[in-house]
Automatic annotation (TrEMBL):
InterPro entries registered for this protein in UniProt: CoA-transferase_III, CoA-Trfase_fam_III, CoA-Trfase_III_dom3_sf, CoA-Trfase_III_dom_1_sf
Annotated protein name in UniProt: CoA transferase
One MF annotation (Gene Ontology) recorded for this entry: transferase activity
Organism per entry: Hoeflea ulvae
Keywords: Transferase
Length: 382
Protein backbone atom coordinates (compact mmCIF):
# COMPACT_ATOMS: atom_id res chain seq x y z
CA UNK A 1 0.00 0.00 0.00
CA UNK A 2 1.37 3.43 -0.95
CA UNK A 3 -0.82 5.71 1.16
CA UNK A 4 -2.54 9.01 0.27
CA UNK A 5 0.69 11.03 0.78
CA UNK A 6 2.80 8.86 -1.52
CA UNK A 7 5.00 11.10 -3.66
CA UNK A 8 5.10 13.87 -1.03
CA UNK A 9 8.64 14.62 0.11
CA UNK A 10 9.10 16.16 3.56
CA UNK A 11 12.36 17.68 4.77
CA UNK A 12 12.28 17.56 8.56
CA UNK A 13 14.66 19.95 10.33
CA UNK A 14 12.89 19.49 13.68
CA UNK A 15 14.06 17.69 16.82
CA UNK A 16 12.65 16.21 20.02
CA UNK A 17 8.84 15.92 20.02
CA UNK A 18 6.36 18.23 18.22
CA UNK A 19 7.91 18.24 14.74
CA UNK A 20 9.14 14.64 14.71
CA UNK A 21 5.74 13.36 15.82
CA UNK A 22 4.06 15.46 13.13
CA UNK A 23 6.31 14.03 10.42
CA UNK A 24 5.77 10.54 11.85
CA UNK A 25 2.05 10.97 11.16
CA UNK A 26 2.85 12.09 7.61
CA UNK A 27 5.21 9.15 7.09
CA UNK A 28 2.52 6.76 8.30
CA UNK A 29 0.30 8.08 5.51
CA UNK A 30 2.96 7.43 2.87
CA UNK A 31 5.04 10.62 2.74
CA UNK A 32 8.79 10.33 2.29
CA UNK A 33 10.30 12.02 5.34
CA UNK A 34 13.99 12.93 5.34
CA UNK A 35 15.36 14.06 8.69
CA UNK A 36 18.08 16.70 8.44
CA UNK A 37 20.44 16.05 11.35
CA UNK A 38 23.76 17.33 12.58
CA UNK A 39 26.73 15.07 11.85
CA UNK A 40 28.25 13.05 14.66
CA UNK A 41 25.50 12.54 17.23
CA UNK A 42 22.45 13.50 15.20
CA UNK A 43 19.46 15.10 16.83
CA UNK A 44 19.30 15.38 20.62
CA UNK A 45 16.72 12.67 21.17
CA UNK A 46 19.05 9.97 19.83
CA UNK A 47 21.04 10.35 23.05
CA UNK A 48 18.12 10.30 25.48
CA UNK A 49 17.55 7.60 28.09
CA UNK A 50 16.49 4.88 28.14
CA UNK A 51 18.63 3.61 25.29
CA UNK A 52 17.35 0.84 23.02
CA UNK A 53 20.21 -0.32 20.87
CA UNK A 54 22.34 2.54 19.54
CA UNK A 55 19.73 5.25 20.06
CA UNK A 56 17.02 6.08 22.56
CA UNK A 57 13.70 4.26 22.56
CA UNK A 58 12.00 7.67 22.23
CA UNK A 59 13.87 8.31 18.99
CA UNK A 60 12.89 4.89 17.65
CA UNK A 61 9.21 5.43 18.45
CA UNK A 62 9.01 8.90 16.90
CA UNK A 63 11.12 8.36 13.80
CA UNK A 64 10.20 4.99 12.36
CA UNK A 65 9.80 4.87 8.61
CA UNK A 66 11.93 7.97 8.01
CA UNK A 67 15.39 8.43 6.49
CA UNK A 68 18.28 10.61 7.70
CA UNK A 69 20.58 13.14 6.09
CA UNK A 70 23.54 14.29 8.22
CA UNK A 71 24.70 17.79 7.31
CA UNK A 72 26.31 20.70 9.15
CA UNK A 73 23.92 23.51 8.29
CA UNK A 74 26.43 26.10 9.49
CA UNK A 75 28.86 24.94 6.82
CA UNK A 76 28.10 26.73 3.56
CA UNK A 77 29.47 23.93 1.38
CA UNK A 78 27.41 21.26 3.14
CA UNK A 79 24.32 23.44 3.24
CA UNK A 80 24.56 24.09 -0.49
CA UNK A 81 24.26 20.35 -1.05
CA UNK A 82 20.66 20.67 0.09
CA UNK A 83 19.75 22.87 -2.87
CA UNK A 84 18.47 20.08 -5.15
CA UNK A 85 16.31 18.67 -2.32
CA UNK A 86 14.98 22.12 -1.42
CA UNK A 87 13.90 22.63 -5.02
CA UNK A 88 11.97 19.33 -4.95
CA UNK A 89 10.56 19.41 -1.41
CA UNK A 90 6.82 19.51 -0.94
CA UNK A 91 6.91 20.22 2.79
CA UNK A 92 9.55 21.64 5.14
CA UNK A 93 9.14 21.33 8.90
CA UNK A 94 11.41 23.26 11.26
CA UNK A 95 11.37 23.91 14.98
CA UNK A 96 14.13 26.42 15.65
CA UNK A 97 13.60 29.71 17.40
CA UNK A 98 12.41 32.52 15.09
CA UNK A 99 15.21 33.81 12.88
CA UNK A 100 17.48 30.75 13.03
CA UNK A 101 16.52 29.36 9.63
CA UNK A 102 16.95 32.82 8.10
CA UNK A 103 20.47 33.06 9.52
CA UNK A 104 21.21 29.70 7.91
CA UNK A 105 19.95 30.94 4.55
CA UNK A 106 16.95 28.59 4.75
CA UNK A 107 14.07 30.98 5.39
CA UNK A 108 10.70 30.58 3.75
CA UNK A 109 11.35 33.54 1.46
CA UNK A 110 14.65 32.08 0.26
CA UNK A 111 13.23 28.62 -0.37
CA UNK A 112 10.04 29.96 -1.94
CA UNK A 113 12.20 31.80 -4.47
CA UNK A 114 13.43 28.46 -5.83
CA UNK A 115 10.35 26.40 -4.97
CA UNK A 116 7.13 28.47 -5.10
CA UNK A 117 4.92 25.52 -4.20
CA UNK A 118 6.71 24.63 -0.95
CA UNK A 119 4.71 24.30 2.27
CA UNK A 120 6.92 25.60 5.03
CA UNK A 121 5.85 24.81 8.60
CA UNK A 122 7.54 26.50 11.56
CA UNK A 123 6.70 25.14 15.02
CA UNK A 124 7.57 27.23 18.07
CA UNK A 125 6.25 27.76 21.57
CA UNK A 126 5.05 31.33 21.13
CA UNK A 127 4.95 31.86 17.37
CA UNK A 128 6.99 33.98 14.99
CA UNK A 129 5.61 37.32 16.19
CA UNK A 130 4.69 38.97 19.47
CA UNK A 131 6.61 39.97 22.62
CA UNK A 132 7.39 36.36 23.62
CA UNK A 133 8.41 35.10 20.17
CA UNK A 134 12.11 34.69 20.99
CA UNK A 135 11.60 33.38 24.53
CA UNK A 136 12.73 29.89 25.55
CA UNK A 137 10.17 27.52 27.00
CA UNK A 138 8.97 23.98 27.49
CA UNK A 139 5.57 22.34 27.76
CA UNK A 140 5.06 23.32 31.40
CA UNK A 141 5.74 26.97 30.55
CA UNK A 142 3.33 27.01 27.62
CA UNK A 143 0.39 25.49 29.51
CA UNK A 144 1.19 27.83 32.38
CA UNK A 145 1.30 30.98 30.25
CA UNK A 146 -2.01 30.39 28.45
CA UNK A 147 -4.08 29.50 31.50
CA UNK A 148 -4.59 25.76 31.20
CA UNK A 149 -2.39 24.73 34.12
CA UNK A 150 -4.15 27.10 36.53
CA UNK A 151 -7.39 25.12 36.13
CA UNK A 152 -5.98 22.04 37.89
CA UNK A 153 -2.84 22.73 39.88
CA UNK A 154 -3.40 20.54 42.90
CA UNK A 155 -2.57 22.02 46.29
CA UNK A 156 0.41 23.90 47.68
CA UNK A 157 1.43 20.69 49.45
CA UNK A 158 1.04 18.47 46.37
CA UNK A 159 1.18 20.55 43.17
CA UNK A 160 0.31 18.50 40.10
CA UNK A 161 2.47 18.39 36.96
CA UNK A 162 0.38 16.96 34.08
CA UNK A 163 1.87 13.68 32.79
CA UNK A 164 1.07 14.44 29.14
CA UNK A 165 3.12 16.91 27.09
CA UNK A 166 -0.05 18.73 26.12
CA UNK A 167 1.49 21.76 24.43
CA UNK A 168 4.00 19.78 22.38
CA UNK A 169 1.47 17.31 21.01
CA UNK A 170 -1.94 19.00 21.20
CA UNK A 171 -0.64 22.50 20.53
CA UNK A 172 2.23 21.62 18.18
CA UNK A 173 1.97 18.26 16.47
CA UNK A 174 -1.74 18.18 15.69
CA UNK A 175 -2.09 21.76 14.40
CA UNK A 176 1.04 21.26 12.31
CA UNK A 177 -0.32 18.10 10.69
CA UNK A 178 -3.78 19.33 9.81
CA UNK A 179 -2.50 22.69 8.57
CA UNK A 180 0.06 20.93 6.37
CA UNK A 181 -2.74 18.81 4.94
CA UNK A 182 -4.87 21.92 4.39
CA UNK A 183 -1.92 23.59 2.68
CA UNK A 184 -1.40 20.59 0.41
CA UNK A 185 -5.09 20.68 -0.52
CA UNK A 186 -4.87 24.42 -1.18
CA UNK A 187 -1.82 23.88 -3.38
CA UNK A 188 -3.78 21.30 -5.37
CA UNK A 189 -6.35 24.03 -6.08
CA UNK A 190 -4.11 27.09 -6.53
CA UNK A 191 -0.61 25.78 -7.23
CA UNK A 192 0.69 28.02 -4.45
CA UNK A 193 2.72 27.08 -1.39
CA UNK A 194 2.12 28.37 2.12
CA UNK A 195 3.99 29.50 5.21
CA UNK A 196 2.59 28.03 8.44
CA UNK A 197 3.33 29.72 11.77
CA UNK A 198 2.39 27.07 14.37
CA UNK A 199 2.55 28.35 17.96
CA UNK A 200 2.06 25.71 20.63
CA UNK A 201 0.47 28.21 23.03
CA UNK A 202 -2.03 29.31 20.39
CA UNK A 203 -3.07 25.73 19.70
CA UNK A 204 -4.03 25.08 23.32
CA UNK A 205 -6.95 27.47 23.68
CA UNK A 206 -9.53 25.04 22.21
CA UNK A 207 -8.80 22.78 25.19
CA UNK A 208 -10.10 25.37 27.65
CA UNK A 209 -13.18 26.32 25.64
CA UNK A 210 -15.47 25.75 28.62
CA UNK A 211 -13.42 27.94 30.97
CA UNK A 212 -13.06 30.65 28.35
CA UNK A 213 -16.77 30.65 27.67
CA UNK A 214 -17.68 30.82 31.34
CA UNK A 215 -15.24 33.63 32.00
CA UNK A 216 -16.06 35.92 29.09
CA UNK A 217 -19.82 35.37 29.31
CA UNK A 218 -20.31 35.66 33.07
CA UNK A 219 -17.20 37.32 34.43
CA UNK A 220 -16.73 34.36 36.78
CA UNK A 221 -13.42 32.81 35.81
CA UNK A 222 -12.83 29.17 36.84
CA UNK A 223 -10.11 28.62 39.39
CA UNK A 224 -7.95 25.75 40.57
CA UNK A 225 -10.01 22.55 40.59
CA UNK A 226 -13.31 24.27 41.27
CA UNK A 227 -15.24 23.59 38.07
CA UNK A 228 -17.39 20.81 36.67
CA UNK A 229 -14.62 19.00 34.76
CA UNK A 230 -11.65 19.98 36.92
CA UNK A 231 -12.65 18.36 40.22
CA UNK A 232 -15.18 20.82 41.57
CA UNK A 233 -18.13 18.45 41.26
CA UNK A 234 -18.84 15.18 43.00
CA UNK A 235 -19.95 13.93 39.59
CA UNK A 236 -16.52 14.32 37.99
CA UNK A 237 -13.61 13.50 40.22
CA UNK A 238 -11.21 10.87 41.50
CA UNK A 239 -12.10 8.89 44.63
CA UNK A 240 -9.48 6.79 46.47
CA UNK A 241 -10.36 3.12 47.00
CA UNK A 242 -9.23 0.99 49.96
CA UNK A 243 -6.21 -0.50 48.17
CA UNK A 244 -4.61 2.73 46.98
CA UNK A 245 -6.24 2.68 43.57
CA UNK A 246 -8.62 5.39 42.37
CA UNK A 247 -12.11 5.42 40.95
CA UNK A 248 -12.54 7.82 38.01
CA UNK A 249 -16.16 8.83 38.46
CA UNK A 250 -17.79 10.84 35.66
CA UNK A 251 -21.57 10.30 35.93
CA UNK A 252 -22.34 13.85 34.83
CA UNK A 253 -25.76 13.33 33.30
CA UNK A 254 -28.64 12.75 35.69
CA UNK A 255 -29.44 9.29 34.30
CA UNK A 256 -25.87 8.14 34.92
CA UNK A 257 -25.80 9.80 38.34
CA UNK A 258 -28.89 7.90 39.41
CA UNK A 259 -27.37 4.59 38.27
CA UNK A 260 -24.09 5.46 40.03
CA UNK A 261 -25.58 6.33 43.43
CA UNK A 262 -27.73 3.22 43.32
CA UNK A 263 -24.74 1.03 42.41
CA UNK A 264 -22.64 2.28 45.32
CA UNK A 265 -25.55 2.38 47.78
CA UNK A 266 -25.45 6.11 48.52
CA UNK A 267 -27.89 7.15 51.24
CA UNK A 268 -31.09 8.75 49.82
CA UNK A 269 -30.70 11.94 51.86
CA UNK A 270 -27.46 12.91 50.10
CA UNK A 271 -28.23 11.78 46.56
CA UNK A 272 -29.39 15.24 45.51
CA UNK A 273 -26.00 16.91 45.14
CA UNK A 274 -27.56 20.34 44.59
CA UNK A 275 -28.61 20.68 48.23
CA UNK A 276 -25.22 20.17 49.87
CA UNK A 277 -22.53 19.29 47.31
CA UNK A 278 -19.80 18.88 49.91
CA UNK A 279 -21.87 16.47 52.00
CA UNK A 280 -22.59 14.37 48.90
CA UNK A 281 -18.92 14.36 47.91
CA UNK A 282 -17.82 13.23 51.37
CA UNK A 283 -20.47 10.51 51.49
CA UNK A 284 -19.40 9.13 48.10
CA UNK A 285 -15.76 9.25 49.13
CA UNK A 286 -16.44 7.29 52.32
CA UNK A 287 -18.23 4.53 50.40
CA UNK A 288 -15.58 4.22 47.69
CA UNK A 289 -12.85 4.10 50.34
CA UNK A 290 -14.39 0.99 51.90
CA UNK A 291 -13.71 -1.34 48.93
CA UNK A 292 -10.84 -2.17 46.60
CA UNK A 293 -10.39 -1.07 43.01
CA UNK A 294 -11.13 -4.58 41.79
CA UNK A 295 -14.43 -4.52 43.65
CA UNK A 296 -15.46 -1.22 42.10
CA UNK A 297 -14.31 -2.31 38.67
CA UNK A 298 -16.81 -5.16 38.74
CA UNK A 299 -19.56 -2.90 40.09
CA UNK A 300 -19.09 -0.27 37.38
CA UNK A 301 -18.67 -2.82 34.62
CA UNK A 302 -22.16 -4.04 35.45
CA UNK A 303 -23.65 -0.60 36.09
CA UNK A 304 -22.27 1.13 32.95
CA UNK A 305 -22.49 4.61 34.43
CA UNK A 306 -19.37 6.41 33.13
CA UNK A 307 -17.19 5.19 35.98
CA UNK A 308 -13.97 3.20 35.87
CA UNK A 309 -10.91 2.36 37.92
CA UNK A 310 -7.66 4.11 37.02
CA UNK A 311 -5.28 1.66 35.32
CA UNK A 312 -1.61 2.16 34.54
CA UNK A 313 -0.10 2.16 31.06
CA UNK A 314 1.21 -1.38 31.41
CA UNK A 315 -2.34 -2.64 31.87
CA UNK A 316 -3.57 -0.50 28.98
CA UNK A 317 -1.16 -2.27 26.61
CA UNK A 318 -2.77 -5.58 27.58
CA UNK A 319 -6.35 -4.31 27.55
CA UNK A 320 -8.52 -6.61 25.38
CA UNK A 321 -10.38 -3.64 23.92
CA UNK A 322 -7.26 -1.87 22.63
CA UNK A 323 -5.81 -5.18 21.49
CA UNK A 324 -8.97 -5.98 19.56
CA UNK A 325 -8.73 -2.63 17.77
CA UNK A 326 -5.17 -3.39 16.66
CA UNK A 327 -3.57 -0.38 18.34
CA UNK A 328 -0.42 -2.28 19.20
CA UNK A 329 -0.05 -4.49 16.13
CA UNK A 330 2.75 -2.48 14.50
CA UNK A 331 6.33 -2.88 15.74
CA UNK A 332 9.61 -0.99 15.70
CA UNK A 333 12.85 -2.85 15.10
CA UNK A 334 16.34 -1.70 16.07
CA UNK A 335 19.68 -2.47 14.44
CA UNK A 336 20.02 -5.68 16.47
CA UNK A 337 16.69 -7.03 15.26
CA UNK A 338 14.96 -6.49 18.60
CA UNK A 339 11.33 -5.45 18.34
CA UNK A 340 8.96 -3.48 20.54
CA UNK A 341 5.42 -2.19 20.17
CA UNK A 342 5.29 0.86 17.90
CA UNK A 343 3.70 4.09 19.01
CA UNK A 344 0.03 4.06 17.93
CA UNK A 345 -0.76 6.99 15.64
CA UNK A 346 -4.14 8.59 14.83
CA UNK A 347 -3.94 7.79 11.13
CA UNK A 348 -6.86 5.67 9.95
CA UNK A 349 -5.89 2.15 8.98
CA UNK A 350 -7.18 2.80 5.46
CA UNK A 351 -4.44 5.40 4.98
CA UNK A 352 -1.51 3.87 6.85
CA UNK A 353 1.48 2.27 5.14
CA UNK A 354 3.60 1.16 8.12
CA UNK A 355 1.30 -1.43 9.68
CA UNK A 356 3.95 -4.10 10.22
CA UNK A 357 7.60 -3.64 11.22
CA UNK A 358 9.57 -0.43 10.60
CA UNK A 359 12.87 1.06 11.73
CA UNK A 360 14.04 4.52 12.69
CA UNK A 361 16.84 5.68 10.39
CA UNK A 362 20.54 5.27 10.99
CA UNK A 363 22.21 8.67 11.11
CA UNK A 364 23.01 9.79 7.58
CA UNK A 365 21.56 6.71 5.86
CA UNK A 366 20.38 8.91 2.97
CA UNK A 367 23.51 11.02 2.53
CA UNK A 368 23.86 9.54 -0.94
CA UNK A 369 20.99 11.82 -1.98
CA UNK A 370 23.22 14.85 -1.69
CA UNK A 371 26.52 13.08 -2.43
CA UNK A 372 25.16 12.21 -5.86
CA UNK A 373 22.83 15.21 -6.18
CA UNK A 374 20.15 12.67 -7.04
CA UNK A 375 17.21 14.83 -6.10
CA UNK A 376 14.70 12.86 -8.16
CA UNK A 377 15.33 9.60 -6.33
CA UNK A 378 12.05 9.33 -4.49
CA UNK A 379 12.58 5.90 -3.10
CA UNK A 380 10.23 4.92 -0.33
CA UNK A 381 11.86 5.05 3.14
CA UNK A 382 13.15 1.82 4.62
Amino acid sequence: MTGPLAGIRVLDFSTLLPGPMATLFLAEAGAEVIKIERPGKGEEMRGYEPKWGDDSVNFALLNRGKTSLALDLKDTVQRDKLLPLLKQADVIVEQFRPGVMARLGLSYEEIRAINPGVIYCSITGYGQTGPRAARAGHDLNYISDMGLLALSLGSAETPVVPPALIADIAGGTYPAVFNILLALRNRDKTGKGTYLDIAMCDGLFPFVYWALGEGVATGRWPGNGDSLVSGGSCRYRLYPASDGSFVAAAPLEQKFWEIFVEAIGLAPEVRDDRRDPEATTQAVARIIAQQSGDHWSKVFEAADCCCSVVRDLRHALQDPHFRARGLFDAEVENESGERITALPVPVANAFRVNTGVARAPRLGNKNDLVANDNSDDREAPR
